[in-house]
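Run log, item B.
One chain of 438 residues. Sequence copied directly from the ordering sheet:
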Amino acid sequence: MRLSDILAICVRNLTRRKLRTFLTALGVVIGVGLIIIAISIGIGLTQAYEEQLASWGDLTVIEVYNWNSTVTLDDAAMAKIQALDGVEIATPFYQNWDVAMQITARNGRYRNTNSLYGVYPEALEKLGYELKEGSYLKDGDRPYSLVVGENYAYRFYDTKRQRNNRVDPYPDQFGRIKDPFVDIMKDKLLLTMPSQKYDSNGNKTGKDIELKPTVVGVLLKNDANWEATNYAFMDINEMKALIEKYNRQNGIKTQGKKITYEQAKVKCVNVDAVAAVQAEIKGMGFDCSSMNDSREYMQEQAMMIQLVLGGLAGVSLFVAAIGIANTMFMSIYERTREIGVMKVIGAEIRDIRIMFLLEAGMIGLLGGILGVALSFGGSMAFNTFAAGAMGAGSKLSVIPLWLVGVALLFSILVGVLFGLLPANRAVKISALEAIKHE
């Protein structure tokens, strides 16, 4: 028999008893629809969690801390971290608390103290800090070039005021944001490292360091990153050289004393590399954290929800599959004489088997198509609820196209698998006994 003939017979048999076919397919509809919704909720929750985490910070960045006294976060350790597979950039965030580094403006009236980090110049761009104006730190810049956060100017305080000596970068009751005391790109700045060396009479005996820094860029405000919003950054090698000069001028001995860092940031090439890199850094003895910790926990939560809903859907689909097998057995019983006639006139056993498998597969396909439609309706309902409960734009359920394709193939496969036993039963019927069957 030609395949077109077999298909025509299958369609005729299924449409002959429309209600039974529909009721059999209905179980598949419910099972497939629930499975799609279960998976889509997991996908939606995962996306929502990652969007939420991204608003808190970069998912590919690892924070490293030097809290463990048995290991030292120094240049040698930074070189080892940089050499790890999956690391794009690793940089210290260096602040020297032994020497005060303050920046002043307008003849020293406005002052900003200890808000300066030393970093590798190329790190700011690779860490994903966006520029509001100017440029990043780079080779060829003027000595003591700075890149500052958008709110850095608001950290200057007025030394001549006892009260209200700062300007906040937040809107007032009328929605207006006041200008800071200092125009960070235009005002002349002075970086001062005041000596803390005094004689017994209180007279300063040490030497201050004063130099004129240049602001070359302003970073766009990032609510997820305090440093990139409120601090200034300079080349870490220039900062080290300044501290060395200060120590030399003030007779502070540092022979054999390594410069160590309290914290560092590591940017990974992608989110998937974070867990492995973080494990390697912890293996070195350092404390570290990343958004990946929260991400893994949230993914586990989404997976648990998927498993519970998917389990319920799986039971429903299994019952539906039994219904397909039952319907096919009933069809064989009703069409026993027809099967016998087909065998007598020369129909091959293979064609009879294919015919029943196609019928079962069609029931599965019909259920799959209606199940997909049901899942899209359920997804819209969930998302409407999410928009009301979680805010506009929130999606609790996301159905990608690949999930639709997989669901349809799965529903056909279920039909065919549970149609195998009835199909094999059909081909074993004796032709003579089938013709005598009433």
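Observations after the first pass:
- The chain has a mean pLDDT of 82.
- The radius of gyration is 36 Å.
Flagged for discussion on Thursday.
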